[in-house]
Design a protein that fits this description.
single chain, five-stranded antiparallel beta sheet
Length: 103
């Protein structure tokens, strides 16, 4: 499968179908990338008429895996890691500020 990624949109091209999907990215506590497919539509390319291709769970997992592989350790992944770090720093600051006692 080939992908063309323009976050949050990806175009995918398989042997018998092609389409597009929207996806969300996040990072977990270990800074591993998580890909969630939000919407997806595909059409058959092996027929002379335009016919919608019903994506299976396997198809969606394959697309998500391809997006993951392409974006792992990319600049976009690094941005999400930095954003998560900045949020943790801000939360720690806010928690510290809110827990101070006033006399």
């Amino acid at each position: 499968m080939n992908l063309e990624i323009h976050y949050p949109l990806a175009y995918f091209y398989a042997e018998t179908y092609e389409g597009e999907c929207t996806f969300e990215l996040s990072v977990d506590e270990d800074n591993d990338l998580n890909v969630t497919i939000c919407t997806a539509v595909a059409y058959r390319t092996d027929l002379e008429i335009e016919l919608e291709h019903v994506l299976t769970d396997y198809d969606l997992q394959l697309i998500a895996s391809e997006i993951y592989d392409d974006l792992l350790n990319s600049d976009l992944h690094e941005e999400f890691i930095q954003e998560g770090y900045n949020i943790k720093i801000q939360e720690a600051y806010d928690n510290g500020k809110n827990s101070r006692r006033t006399i």
